[in-house]
Amino acid sequence: MEVVEVLHMNGGIGHTSYANNSLLQQNVILRAKPITDEAIRSLYANLNPKNICIADLGCSSGPNTFLAVSNLVKAVENQRKKLGRRQSPEFQIYLNDLPSNDFNTIFRSLPKHQEDFRREMGDGFGVPFFNAVAGSFYGRLFPTDSLHFVHSSFTLHWLSQVPQGLEGNKGNICMATTSPLNVIKAYYNQFNNDFSIFLKCRSKELVKGGKMVLTIMGRKNDNPTFHLMELLARALNDLVAEGFVEEEKLNSFNTPVYTPSLAEVKSLVENDGSFTIECLETFQIHWTGDEYDNDDNIIGNNNNAAYKVARGLRAVIEPVLVSHFGEGIIEEVFQRYRKMIADSMSREKTEYTNFVISLIKK
């Protein structure tokens, strides 16, 4: 599987599109917003650039594409007014994702976004300049010393490739509880290599004093379980048992996903040496993207919660599944998957662990 060709969210604006099934990712962005806002406010106050170059890495397509960068621009404008500076800086926004991303939908919706933004900010404010940058962020994307701010949310758990040496991971589709030790090590080594390259590339591209805020889906402890992916593996195994999928077909399938621990992320940043950690926080969010109330119940909980979770995962992983298994099993596997999610949600607290790390280039 060539990750660069198949790793993209469901495009368009249809029923199973990422654009219509990304509430979870939206709420992750909003939960990280105080840290992101503070990072870019302090950057603007300290560097006072006439133009600010911002890169959003792993932008995908849909409303979240503009949410993150719009929040950053507004944070700078609020800081400008607070500091009493007359002239707004110009904003150069780079939206990055793999070439297979649905950039067409992004730019078809850009005029409406710019009009809404102009109306909200006032006539005297010039709208940002937007550019698409297609390519893997596990490599150089921008000229040396050209960026002021890098943002990435819910993307760095995706690896540049499926690790080598996973032949013993039978019945699993990622690093799982039953995975052999060599499989877990292979996933860790791939993440280690990828994240180290990511940091080296961004340290070249950011100006001195430039900042980067990364929100990374991770895990609480050393337990390698990624529960939602394990449930999907169970659904696929059921299809194998019933003869709908060949066992060898499943055993040859693994996803390029790794959820790191907080210690792993911190260690790799410190080993790279190019950045100072300004802030590092952890938060949990329910699989649906909804908030907990004070009694640990889900606000707005209903019988459709499992359907929402399954459809959200489908918007993310369907292209990868289709590339390996074909389209014929998709409806059936997600029907079974939804039932498994509902059962899991009825028995345990189902949530993602996320890390927000704010870095400044030395």
Helices and strands in order:
Layout: H1 3-6, H2 23-47, E1 51-57, H3 63-83, E2 90-97, H4 103-121, E3 129-134, E4 147-153, H5 181-205, E5 206-218, H6 227-241, H7 247-251, H8 262-272, E6 275-286, H9 305-325, H10 330-347, E7 351-361
Parallel strand pairs: 1-2, 1-4, 2-3, 4-5
Antiparallel strand pairs: 5-7, 6-7
Helix pairs in contact: 2-3, 3-4, 5-8, 6-10, 9-10
Structure characteristics:
18% strand, 7 strands, Rossmann fold, single chain, alpha/beta, 362 residues
Would you write up a description of this structure?
This protein has 362 residues and is of the alpha/beta class. It has a single domain, classed as Rossmann fold. Helices cover 45% and strands 18% of the residues. The chain has helices spanning 3-6, 23-47, 63-83, 103-121, 181-205, 227-241, 247-251, 262-272, 305-325, 330-347; strands spanning 51-57, 90-97, 129-134, 147-153, 206-218, 275-286, 351-361. It has a 7-stranded mixed sheet with strand order 3-2-1-4-5-7-6, with helices on both faces. Helix 3 (63-83) packs parallel to helix 4 (103-121), helix 5 packs across helix 8 (262-272) and helix 6 (227-241) crosses helix 10.
